[in-house]
Write a structure and sequence with these properties.
The complex is a heterodimer. Chain A is mainly α. Chain A is about 85% helix and about 0% strand. Chain B has one domain. The longest helix of chain B is centred in the C-terminal third of the chain and has 77 residues, at about 140-215. The chains are: A mainly alpha, B mainly alpha.
């Protein structure tokens, strides 16, 4: 569609000839000339596709940032439960000073390790956030209403130019058509499209590299989160169901309810793994689409698939925050 | 697009070494204005980095070719035993004795084995819920090994994150600059719009003036 407009403009310029009027026109309005050049050099992918791609990039990096933040929270919770468990275990083997020393060493070592984990996750979050900022700006550019306004202004400008040409050379036959979609729509669409295409193609290697790093982050965070969530669930089940149920003491009504609630939660299963798998699948759709859109001769299909990926990644981000 | 996982870490190291191009570096150093001693020190540092990278590649190759397969088999066996019934208790206790020693051999960047280590250690520290200890509780030695294994996983996971975080550093400036440039593009677009408004105003005046001149001639 856009190529058709570009060709339309091109043939229009040839057809009109624009000798005297054209020279005057370009000299008078370099802005319009620049816009026409951008139209002629613009790509064929629609702005909407770039918007969806930018949304997918933003959703993907946002999901990684959310994972990094949650990984720290679940680590601190799971390591606290492990500290309680180890305290119980050490209490059966040591007493007095040896017990106190062992607990002090254990707490110090765990704090040190967790501090490192929080620091590393914070770095990962910053990396993901900085990439998210990039995709957000890309999205903002693709959504900008300025090109559309520029298209309208171009039309207005063309009318003014025609009036000026007529005024300068009365009886002239040269006239640039105004009010045609070929002028306004082509200018408005292709300004941004050419910018986006150029931007993504130029950054392809860097973005590919960053996506590789984000993939590693995702795998590392996945291992962390699934392991820590399992420990939290096991500890809560043991404390609230197993120990209470096996206790010789009579169960109070509140205990009974607690046993029912925790048992239900535990046996309903851990959904984190399946949610992470769905998010990884969605991120793959983004990466494939990005690859296609930045490869010469790339096809324009797959926007619906990409939009689904955006929804999937946004749902995952909400889920991971709810953990 | 290239997936970055498993044994492709080796390819990543090779690519990294290639990026450290001797010619470009030599030309940079030559034009740097540093004195000869500084230039010599930088070139020496460069050759040391190259040497270290080759060493790491060699080590990773040995890991992939010789160590990884038996290590993976051991971890899978341990994971399987943790899911077994009480009759396999003795097997599990015996296998678990070398868990930390074996776990230390895992390369932090090996995502598949790291995921296995995470799953095993989180199962082992939750021994109270394992079927295999349903009749007789897990002994203290087993639990101590399980906690040590979880600690080992946490340390290795931090190492892997440190490497990934550092890998981003070379491109972090470019990403910030690209983000700023996109913002500038938005500003430019808005600038074009404002320039067009001026053009229209200018043309309005011009048409009026030229129109008057044309009517006079």
């Amino acid at each position: 569609m856009c190529c058709r407009y570009a060709n339309g403009i091109s043939s229009l310029i040839t057809e009109i000839g624009m000798k005297r009027a054209g020279q005057w026109f370009c000299r008078t309005s370099p802005v319009v000339a620049l816009l026409l050049i951008m139209v002629l050099t613009g790509g064929c992918t629609t702005t909407k596709q770039y918007t969806t791609l930018a949304d997918a990039g933003s959703a993907y990096t946002g999901a990684v940032a959310a994972m990094a933040e949650k990984a720290s929270a679940v680590r601190l919770e799971s390591s606290s439960y492990l500290l309680f468990q180890q305290r119980d275990s050490l209490s059966t083997r040591f007493t007095g000073k040896p017990l106190k020393d062992s607990l002090r060493v254990l707490l110090g070592r765990t704090n040190n390790n967790d501090r490192n984990t929080v620091r590393h996750n914070s770095v990962l979050k910053n990396v993901a956030t900085s990439l998210k900022a990039y995709f957000d700006k890309l999205g903002a550019l693709s959504r900008s209403s300025s090109p559309e306004d520029i298209g309208k202004k171009t039309d207005e400008l063309v009318k003014q130019v025609n009036t000026a040409v007529r005024a300068a050379t009365p009886g002239t036959a040269y006239q640039i058509p105004s009010g045609l979609p070929a002028v306004t729509q082509a200018v408005s669409g292709n300004v941004v499209e050419s910018m986006l295409k150029q931007e993504l193609t130029r950054r392809k290697d860097t973005i590919d590299y960053c996506v590789e790093i984000l993939d590693s982050f995702t795998n590392e965070l996945e291992s962390d989160i699934t392991g820590d969530v399992k420990i939290i669930r096991s500890y809560l089940y043991t404390a609230n169901v197993k120990n209470r149920y096996e206790s010789k003491a009579a169960l109070l009504p509140a205990d009974l309810q607690s046993v029912v609630d925790y048992r239900k939660t535990y046996l309903m299963g851990d959904t984190a793994s399946s949610e992470i798998a769905a998010a990884k699948k969605a991120s793959k759709v983004f990466k494939d689409k990005f690859d296609r859109m930045t490869t010469p001769g790339a096809s324009d299909d797959g926007v619906d698939e990409l939009r689904e990926a955006v929804n999937e990644l946004q749902a995952f981000t909400s889920f991971i925050k709810s953990l | 697009m290239k997936e970055y996982k498993g044994d492709e870490n080796l390819q990543f190291l090779r690519d990294f070494e290639k990026r450290l191009d001797a010619k470009s570096l030599a030309s940079l150093i030559e034009n740097s204005g540093f004195d000869d001693a500084k230039k010599k020190a930088l070139l020496l540092q460069y050759s040391e980095i190259k040497g270290s990278l080759r060493q790491v590649q060699d080590q990773y190759t040995v890991y992939l070719n010789l160590r990884r397969a038996p290590l993976k088999a051991y971890l899978l066996r341990l994971q399987d035993l943790l899911r077994q019934a009480p009759p396999m208790r003795t097997d599990l206790l015996n296998t678990m004795k070398s868990a930390v020693v074996e776990g230390k051999k895992i390369q932090a960047l090996d995502e598949e084995l790291m995921a296995l280590l995470s799953a095993i250690s989180s199962d082992a520290v939750s021994a109270q819920l394992l079927d295999i200890f349903m009749i007789e509780e897990a002994p203290a030695d087993f639990l101590a090994e399980a906690y040590a294994l979880k600690h080992l996983y946490d340390e290795k996971s931090n190492d892997a994150k440190e490497i990934s975080g550092n890998a981003f550093m070379p491109v972090s400036l470019e990403i910030s600059a690209a983000t700023e440039a996109l913002e500038k593009n938005m500003e430019n677009l808005e600038g074009v719009l404002s320039a067009m408004n001026s053009c229209i105003a200018f043309l309005g005046g011009l048409v009026k003036t030229v129109g008057i001149v044309a009517s006079l001639t």
